[in-house]
Amino acid sequence: RRACRPSPTPAMQNFVVYTRDEEDGEPPPSVFVSQAEASFKAQIWGPHPLSGDLSTYGRKLVLLVTVWFLSLVIWGAAANNIADPRPCDGICTWQLICGLISWLYLSVLLIFNILIEYQKMSRYGFFSHLVEFICYLPLIFWWVCGIAAFSAARSTAEGVAIVFSWMCFFGTIALSFRAYHSYLEEDRPDEVPEEVQLQFDTEQRYG
After folding, report:
1. Are 194 and 11 in contact (CB under 8 A)?
2. How many other C-beta atoms lie within 10 A of the C-beta of residue 31?
3. pTM for the complete prediction?
């Protein structure tokens, strides 16, 4: 494919246009790709153009680090209880397992995000925004199992495990929501207005 650069119009400034080679005397079909997709680079801390807030991708990373830290506190509190002379019951063991697996799982996803931002990995490889969104879904059900055990009526779990497990549950839901919106913004090209497509096709046909 070769890049085609028609004279820009205000409606076309947010798009990069590619065309394929001409076939059988027909004008080459045009493909519009959004600037976000063409750049192959997410703007992490870039402010939203209207609100000045963090971008959707930036909010996703904040939530990822938050749930990662909460999981660390949960399994760290359980490890501290195991170090005490008193025996650790089943709830204490499950607190350690639940928090540790969540922390390790999120650590891998966090490392992938860091490698992508340092251009050691490609976001358009195996770890796309859609794949990352799917990776967060099992974690929601994982924390359902956690809060079901910690918040039971006769549970011996301490307040740290109960409160932080609920925070991990809701934080993972919010994280999945942000990851899905990152997929919508970064991996899917913007819709091209009909008048922009018509103008470009006219320029290609008649010069």
Report:
1. no
2. 15
3. 0.65
Cβ-in-10-Å burial (0-12, 13-18, 19+) of 13 comes to: exposed
CA angle (105 as vertex; 100, 110 as ends), nearest 5: 120
Amino acid in position 29:
P
Model confidence band, residue 45 (pLDDT cutoffs 50, 70, 90) = very low
Give the pair of three-digit tokens for residue 127: 């770890």
Distance CA 158, CA 164 (A): 10
Contact between 175 and 60 (Cβ < 8 Å): yes
The structure tokens 């993972």 sit at: 172
What digits encode the pLDDT tens for the residues 121-171?
Answer: 888 888 988 999 999 999 999 999 999 999 888 888 888 889 999 999 999
Please give the Cα distance from 51 to 183 (Å, whole number). 20
Question: Following DSSP, what letter does each residue of 139-204 receive, concatenated?
Answer: HHHHHHHHHHHHTSTT----HHHHHHHHHHHHHHHHHHHHHHHHHHHHTSPPPPPHHHHHHHHHHH
